[in-house]
Specification:
Blueprint: H1 3-13, E1 17-21, H2 24-27, H3 49-52, H4 55-60, H5 62-72, H6 82-92, E2 98-101, H7 107-110, E3 116-118, E4 121-128, E5 134-136, H8 137-142, E6 155-159, H9 168-180, E7 183-187, E8 207-211, E9 224-226, H10 230-241
Parallel strand pairs: 1-2, 1-7, 2-3, 7-8, 8-9
Antiparallel strand pairs: 4-5, 4-6
Helix pairs in contact: 6-10
Amino acid sequence: MSDIDTLMEWIKESNNTVFFGGAGVSTESGLKDFRSKDGLYYEKYDYPPEEILSHDFFFDKPEEFFKFYREKLNVEVFSPNITHDVLTMMEENNLLNCIITQNIDGFHTDSGSQNVLELHGSIKRNYCTKCHQFYSDEKVFSTKDIPHCSCGGMIKPDVVLYQEPLNDEVVRKTIEAIQKADLLIIGGTSLNVYPAAGFLHYFSGKHLVLINLDKTPFDRTCDLVIHEKLGEVFQKIKEELF
């Protein structure tokens, strides 16, 4: 039996499947990740990307922040790919209970998934730092300078920047989902980013599956490791299950 066949059997048998995804889920849509050799952290800027995407930098140099943000994180020109779509199909057919994502592009909800936990927030949501009124991503990306609310306050993307904590409620739901899962599928993540990667230690179900092109620190602890492109794996899942 091939690895894909084994995965199919586990998906069919599972009563509670959770998908935990990272940057590799969205790079096949054309988005750049952060830490790979071709990622944003290896490009040259006036400031290091880690500094630009920090809480202090946002409030100290908002012009520079939004210049980088619009150039490098504009998801308006991209769309969900086969992995997002098949995960939605799995949820619709009661083969998937929850998606936990480290990505901020909002593609899982764009593709139609309902139960999505966004650990690092979403570019799709933006709020006024003064009155907390919410705005769409179109408002932010269509503004040439610093986006401001009608009340005059600066608009901030609802994403977790460096120096900022994860949302307590999202963390609670993430831990709960992983604890209840009997099949946990990890996809497109190096598992080197904490605290996100640390949540996997809460899993005590039947099968732990990892789908990632490169090796990770968790390879040895998984029941099944598939070193292939996510899109190719999920295309096979689509062909077999739908």
